[in-house]
Design a protein that fits this description.
Blueprint lengths: L5 H11 L8 H4 L6 H12 L14 H11 L2 H19 L6 H19 L12 H15 L7 H18 L14 H14 L6 H23 L11 H24 L2 E5 L6 E4 L8
Antiparallel strand pairs: 1-2
Helix pairs in contact: 1-6, 3-5, 5-6, 7-8, 8-9, 8-11, 9-10
């Protein structure tokens, strides 16, 4: 769910010439802007390499910007808009500003200020899993409205579904002999064992962090059952709820980034020009 409204997006697009697959199209048409410059602007502000990063490579400049709007945190979007604003000022100089430019520029600065104040948590984006996408939208809405105490139950469900999906990815069984689903902390424990057995991490620190997360997930089960909206409970205080939500969210995001970092480009297939991605422990098909 984007944190930008339709009107905000239209204002941003008008100021920065975002249209027809380009940004700063009014300069691109004159040969004064290209995708390499866009790549540098996005990398400096967001840490995303649109030429190489999975999910961005091959997208137009406009689609890269829209993907960041839809998937990144308000703070990252604010950094991007600030970088684009600074670049706009640099390129425009002082002589060519129209009244419309001035108006749009001031509106974008207000948008940046608003985004910088928004509460947010970062969670894995799993667009291909419908339940997780819907849960994520619900979680983000409550975080934006400063209601972390209402996030605990939804985040527990999200975490369970996400870890279960990771287990399936690594062929780890997620149910016992009677067909009952393992609880959250058990899923984390089985994943940790798989990571250790397969030397998945580069450092012992990561292994210890995952080991500690098992106990955290266990305690998160407890507050979900006794202090969340899942049952007629007294809700956790806002401060404790926000703290718990951020710790669990950070752990899930860490796992997600580790998993995605293991996906690598191995070869451009000569017969169709496509790119093959395989996990590090898979065999090459040729």
């Amino acid at each position: 769910m984007s944190v930008l409204s339709f009107i905000e997006k239209q204002t941003i697009c008008r100021l920065f010439g975002i249209s027809d697959g380009f940004i700063f199209k009014y300069w691109s048409d004159k040969g004064a802007h290209n995708k390499s410059t866009t790549k540098e602007l996005i990398y400096d502000s967001c840490g995303i390499n649109i030429f190489e990063d999975v999910g961005y490579k091959g997208l137009s400049q406009q689609k890269c910007i829209q993907k960041i709007w839809d998937e990144c945190s308000p703070q990252i979007i604010a950094k991007l808009l600030k970088t684009l604003s600074d670049y706009f000022c640099f390129k425009m100089g002082t002589d060519w500003w129209s009244d419309e430019d001035n108006y749009d520029y001031q509106q974008v600065q207000h948008i940046i200020e608003r985004l910088q104040t928004l509460q947010t948590v970062e969670l894995p984006k799993e667009e291909n899993i419908k339940n997780l996408k819907l849960l994520l939208e619900d979680i983000e809405e409550n975080i934006k409205n400063d209601k972390p105490e209402l996030v605990v139950d939804r985040l527990h469900t999200f975490a369970s579904e996400y870890l279960r999906n990771l287990c399936h990815t690594h062929s780890i069984e997620t149910t016992d002999s009677k067909g009952n689903e393992y609880p959250l902390h058990s899923l984390a424990g089985m994943l940790k064992k798989w990571y250790v057995d397969n030397a998945y991490f580069d450092s012992e620190f990561a292994v210890v962090a995952i080991q500690n997360s098992i106990n955290l997930f266990d305690k998160f089960n407890g507050i979900r059952n006794d202090n969340s909206a899942a049952h007629p409970n007294d809700l956790l205080s806002k401060a404790e709820a926000e703290y718990a939500v951020r710790i669990i969210a950070n752990t899930l995001t860490f796992l997600d980034k580790c998993e995605k970092s293991k996906i690598k480009k191995v070869q451009t297939l000569p017969w169709d020009g496509g790119v093959l991605y395989i996990a590090p422990d898979e065999e090459l098909p040729f």
